[in-house]
Each structure stands twice: as structure tokens, then as C-alpha cells.
Design goal:
The chain has 158 residues and is an alpha+beta fold. The protein is built from five helices and ten strands, in the order E-H-H-E-E-E-E-H-E-E-E-E-H-E-H.
């Protein structure tokens, strides 16, 4: 994993983790549980991951375990049956751990409420995250025709 994770919560104790897992009645994959033990809620440095040529996303937050459970409860009936929201993307979509015959990672598009497979394992998903810098973006001549800046924003810079 080449993207640095910035923890925002104290580490979860083994007792807390076991209690939350018992409440959820699910056995998450070992690689995900190892991640949660190190980072029970974290923000990755600016990143990008690609599903296909037209689908790029950025994870802005990995949820702590208690939020995984509460978000799933909140979205009951909208998410696939055996899906658990584990992260939030900059565009408002969710990264899900989904139990099919095995655990997989999907991206859930909140606008159309559909999933697209991202990775076979949580570890594979983490390896998809690449550091992002605006300096790395190259625009072709003519790619940007015009831009508008809110005058209130400009005034705030003075």
C-alpha cells in the first residue's frame, strides 16, 4: 500500500472489535480486520483508484467499525443484501465489502444505486490506491474551453 493512512480515532481494543462483530453477526475477512485493528477510521492521503477508463474515484475516509454497522443499518434496503459500507469516496459513493461466495470489494454508485466490482480482496483494493497530486494532471491543448470562478470565492482570497 503506497498511500499513507492518517488515523482519526484511537485504536480499537480487541474487546470492542469482538463486541461490534458480535452485534453485526458477520465474520469480516482477516485482511480487513487487520486493517481495522491498525486504523479504526482513517483518512488516506490524496489518492485515486481506477475501475475502468471512465471511472476514477478517490477514497476520502475509511469508516471505523461502529460506523460500518450504523451506515449499513441506515442504508438497509438500498444496498445489496450482504454488503457493508467501509469507506466513502469524494463523489459521495461508497466502497463496500460484499459477501458473495467470497468477500469482494465493490463501489456503490449512490445516484443509480448500483455496484461495480473493484477488487477480489480488501488487500487488492488497498493496492489499487495510488497517491494523487494535481501536479500530475496533464490537460491536452483545447481540453478546457472555459472556466468560471465564483466571485465570492475570489473575494475570500484577498
Amino acid at each position: 500500500m503506497s498511500v499513507e493512512m492518517i488515523s482519526v480515532n484511537p485504536p480499537i481494543t480487541e474487546d470492542e472489535l469482538l463486541r461490534l462483530l458480535d452485534e453485526s453477526s458477520v465474520s469480516f475477512p482477516k485482511d480487513y480486520l487487520d486493517f481495522v485493528r491498525r486504523h479504526n477510521g482513517c483518512r488516506p492521503e490524496p489518492n485515486v483508484f481506477t475501475l475502468d477508463e471512465s471511472s476514477q474515484f478517490s477514497v476520502t475516509e475509511f469508516y471505523p467499525v461502529d460506523r460500518v454497522i450504523s451506515e449499513r443499518s441506515k442504508l438497509q434496503g438500498r444496498l445489496p443484501k450482504d454488503a457493508w459500507p467501509i469507506a466513502y469516496t469524494e463523489s459521495g459513493n461508497l466502497v463496500l465489502l460484499s459477501l458473495e461466495s467470497e468477500w469482494m470489494v465493490h463501489v456503490w454508485d449512490h445516484e443509480v444505486e448500483e455496484c461495480e466490482r473493484a477488487a477480489s480482496t480488501f488487500t487488492d483494493f488497498l493496492s489499487m490506491l495510488s497517491p494523487f497530486s494535481a501536479d500530475d494532471v496533464e490537460l491536452a491543448p483545447g481540453q478546457v474551453v472555459s472556466a468560471w470562478i465564483d466571485p465570492e470565492f475570489l473575494r475570500s482570497l484577498k
